[in-house]
Design goal:
The structure is a homodimer. The first copy, chain A, has helices at about 10-25, 35-45, 45-60, 80-100, 105-125, 125-145, 150-170, 180-190, 195-210, 225; strands at about 35, 65, 70-75. Chain A is mainly alpha-helical. Chain A has 2 domains: about 1-75, Arc Repressor Mutant, subunit A; about 80-210, Up-down Bundle (Four Helix Bundle (Hemerythrin (Met), subunit A)). A 3-stranded antiparallel beta sheet of chain A has the order 1-3-2. In chain A, a hairpin with a 3-residue loop joins strand 2 and strand 3. In chain A, helix 4 runs antiparallel to helix 9, helix 5 (about 105-125) runs antiparallel to helix 8 (about 180-190) and helix 6 (about 125-145) packs antiparallel against helix 7. Chain A is globular, with a radius of gyration of 19 Å. Chains A and B meet through helix 3, helix 4 and helix 7 of A and helix 3, helix 4 and helix 7 of B. The first copy, chain A, binds a DNA duplex (30 and 30 nucleotides) through helix 3.
Chain lengths: ~230, ~230
DNA sequence: CGGCGCATGATTGTGAACAATCATTCCTTA
DNA sequence: TAAGGAATGATTGTTCACAATCATGCGCCG
């Protein structure tokens, strides 16, 4: 038997994870309602656990909870999208720097392995997997940076980025730059900090520029103040 | 009647807020057990709501949840403390910059009002209020920055900072620098970005330096690998 | 014919009882 | 006497039933 206590995830963490995966793979589109009963029978668990998972996801910002109305997949505004990328541009250079400082062979191997999976999915033309794996690449980097607060935040921002891509990406563009992840890892392996940071910033800018974040957004009007 | 829908907080948000306040005021020390039944009768609510509030606080990192054992106020390690300050040094300069760009008269007034409350608490020798208000000053700044992701993260990091102060502060030192907040606000009012950022960084460094984060920490030993 | 309001069904929110798990204490035994 | 182990009490985790709330559709009235 397994004498070593392996930290197995709780039921609710599992449920939250599966929902997050579905969102990252664009199977659950933004704004969709997540009815508790439906999810409960889909996951073969009680409604209570689903409810817990939904509150967790709400704290992470991936779903929005309207009192007495239920849970919906979040649908970030254009403004939100801009702030999100601004935040990532703030964090990820530091992530890259810390990974260069800390990463040993094992960590570099994990990065390589992940990139291999990305290439595989690209070859198979599995767009859904590509988008999810692209997000997870940044989450992996953040984890390897060793800063738990940054890592936790990136675990929230990356799924949200996938949502934003679902909302604002022009469908036909490849969306995910072919080799930018590889080049970042190569710079990290060479411990070339300046290049790695620069590549990361360009990568983020590139992803944001692909989106149609035009200013003619549907402004959410403050109907209260409008006629005050 | 109040025709304007005021977004009233849910019960569980209220409970979580009261617990957070207690932690920030050092009334709930790190590591203390938060038994559901006790809290339920203290707040005059059912255990279900307390349970929800605790999972929310766990997601925020302020309490730690051990399965089948209950909830405990978090007690961050020295390593955690260092990473926390590193993260704040990364975020708060950007916060200051954005506040300088965005803040109008109303926002500056709110900052001034907050500092007045801090001075008041200091005058009354209310150390608990001083610590809480000092944390809330940074949360207010983050909110005024207009970036919801940074603001949300600061809403988690500031209570944690209060916990770290409870753990590692030498009790007799004043702990909270007298006038550093005031000088930051003054620089913001003058729109002197360089000075404001510099003051913020010095402030954070100052707070961290006051702590006894010596390296002879109680290393949490990996008993699994130790005898492998 | 269109709009308002009420009844109805569906969904969320809450509480309480029950089951499962853990910590403590006491007893047994070597 | 100390170690091991089982009973006990306390606490967490789960389920289920019920209450509260919201959305839908129908009918009534202007």
């Amino acid at each position: 038997m397994n004498t070593i206590a392996k930290s197995e995830k709780s039921d609710i963490a599992l449920i939250a994870e599966r929902i997050t995966n579905a969102v990252m793979e664009h199977r659950l589109p933004p704004g969709v309602k997540l009815a508790e009963e439906r999810l409960a029978e889909a996951f073969k668990v009680s409604r209570t656990k689903v409810r817990h998972a939904l509150t967790v996801l709400a704290k992470e910002g991936l779903v929005t909870l309207y009192p007495n109305r239920g849970a919906f997949v979040a649908s970030p505004s254009v403004q939100d999208a801009r702030e999100l990328f601004a935040t990532r541009r703030l964090l990820e250079p530091e992530v890259v720097r810390k990974v260069i400082d800390r990463a040993g062979k094992a960590e570099l191997r994990r990065l390589r392995a992940h990139i291999a999976k990305e290439a595989e999915a690209r070859l198979a033309n599995d767009r859904r997997a590509v988008i999810k794996l692209s997000g997870e690449f940044h989450m992996l980097l953040a984890k390897l940076s060793g800063n738990p607060y940054i890592s936790k935040l990136m675990d929230e921002l990356c799924p949200l980025t996938c949502l934003i891509i679902a909302l604002y990406d022009s469908p036909q563009t490849p969306a995910c730059p072919e080799d930018e992840h590889i080049r970042i890892v190569e710079a990290i392996e060479l411990k070339d900090e300046a290049t790695a940071v620069s590549l990361m910033l360009h990568h983020l800018q590139h992803v944001e520029n692909e989106l149609k974040l035009s200013v003619d957004e549907k402004v959410d009007i403050d109907w209260e103040k409008m006629f005050a």
